[in-house]
Backbone:
């Protein structure tokens, strides 16, 4: 399974020998080079409207806000989110996954099923939740072919299982999970499905409705060919996620003096 790609890599290196051209093989970490359209859009942003979106009502801030809203709409339609309000921007997939996991209203004793293939950006927040919220986690082993089977996922379920937190494709082996079968299982057992699509968004078609995903975390800077510093969380519903970071936009100060409780959950109607 693993000999084939390295064989092609040797051929490419051989053909390129002596041309002095760099061969970039780190696309799974971040894609390079980015398309010209991305460079142009970034240049236009910093040179034509780099005001602070949502912090001012002047022309440039409004333009920045409207470009961001358009991006939200495009992403919502790309992944078939219920609306653009279900799209949350972060600095990378790590932060989107941290938001989905650390912000989820887990209770003591809740159980999460992940796999042995997870990236640290799932494992570390989960291990923090084990310590801080006293949840438990089962990491499912792949089968002999290196694939995570639905059967193995099913066997890991307990009556406390609240969430499956799994990668669509492993960043180490490239193995893809049988997503639709897994999501049939999560729907049947009323378990939340958090999908880490860092390695697949932009490469494999993802539709959160068709594929039964509740929380979809992804990087904008890998196969979607966006710039560094881009990550997204797409939510199927309003799961009362507690925001990782509070502050930001200047509106709604009246909350501070009335019913604001300092906890602040992510509400879609806001
Ligand atoms: C499967 C997987 N999840 C999460 C991440 C983290 O992505 P980011 O670099 O955007 O934080 C990566 C990055 O390689 C990944 O491969």
Residues:
């Amino acid at each position: 399974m693993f000999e084939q790609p390295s064989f092609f890599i040797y051929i490419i290196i051989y053909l390129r020998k002596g041309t002095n051209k760099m061969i970039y093989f780190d696309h799974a970490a971040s894609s390079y080079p980015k398309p010209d359209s991305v460079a142009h859009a970034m240049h236009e942003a910093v040179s034509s409207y780099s005001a602070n979106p949502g912090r001012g009502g002047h022309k440039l801030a409004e333009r920045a806000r409207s470009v961001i809203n358009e991006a939200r709409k495009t992403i919502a339609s790309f992944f078939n989110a219920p609306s653009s309000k279900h799209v949350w921007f972060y600095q990378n997939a790590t932060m989107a996954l941290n938001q989905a996991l650390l912000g989820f209203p887990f209770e003591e004793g809740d159980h999460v099923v992940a796999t042995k293939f997870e990236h640290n950006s799932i494992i570390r927040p989960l291990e923090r939740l084990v310590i801080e919220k006293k949840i438990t986690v089962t990491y499912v082993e792949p089968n002999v072919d290196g694939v995570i089977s639905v059967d193995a996922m099913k066997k890991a379920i307990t009556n406390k299982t609240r969430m499956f937190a799994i990668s669509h494709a492993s960043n180490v082996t490239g193995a893809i999970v049988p997503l639709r079968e897994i999501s049939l299982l999560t729907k049947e057992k009323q378990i939340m499905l958090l999908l880490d699509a860092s390695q697949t968004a932009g490469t494999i078609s993802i539709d959160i409705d068709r594929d039964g995903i509740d929380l979809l975390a992804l990087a904008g800077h890998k196969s979607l060919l966006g710039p560094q510093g881009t990550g997204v969380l797409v939510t199927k519903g309003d799961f009362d996620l507690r925001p990782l970071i509070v502050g930001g936009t200047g509106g709604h100060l009246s909350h501070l003096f009335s019913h604001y409780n300092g906890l602040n959950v992510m509400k879609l109607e806001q």
